[in-house]
Amino acid sequence: MPSVQQLRPFAYAPVQAFLQASGPVVLIQQPPEPVFQQVALRLAEARTVGMAHRSRLVDRLLVMLQAFDSLEVHFLGPEADGQEMKVGRLEGCTLMVHDPSVSKQHAVLRWHAAQGTCSVKDLGSMNGTWLNAAELGEGEVRMLTDGDALAFGDAQFLYLRAETLHSHLRLASPGGGM
User: Fold this and answer.
1) 25-59: per-residue pLDDT in tens?
2) DSSP labels, 57-81
3) Residue 84 to residue 66: CA distance in whole angstroms
4) Distance between CA atoms of 147 and 127, rounded to whole angstroms?
5) Which side of the chain, N or C, has fewer Cβ within a 10 Å radius?
6) Please, what are the domains in the chain?
7) Is 121 helix (H, G, I), strand (E, B) or coil?
8) Could you tell me the pTM of the whole model?
């Protein structure tokens, strides 16, 4: 996964070329602590660990935004309307999240081509799926919008349209306006 900093050279690519390479939407994540990655990899098929930071989800998002360049970018790259992207700790999930608070199969993102966005649904995870610090109810499907904070257990993400990421890269690059 590239970091935002590693994508800076692509700020000067035309937005259409960036979209072709990245897909329409991305999830941006603070890299997990190495110890949590190791625990998650060892757990693989074992039990999910209870959430440690439930009350700090919003605080963690603010920390993420302050260190934006170091965040990892996950390109979702949906290709067809209705395409589902599983989120979880298991190999084979579209988005593998190496965090012990994430369930083996935690949630599903579904691409809605006409709206140009994804919806999210929790799959009965132990620690829940959170959208803008509000927990999704069981079976609840919510549409995502540009800039939403999305958390799977303790793993915090920022959901962005690829055009938004491209604009940020362009503005924050030397000579780009900031």
Assistant:
1) 999 987 666 554 555 555 555 555 565 554 445 45
2) HHHHHHHHHHTGGG-EEEE----ST
3) 31
4) 22
5) C
6) 4-172 (2.60.200.20)
7) strand
8) 0.79
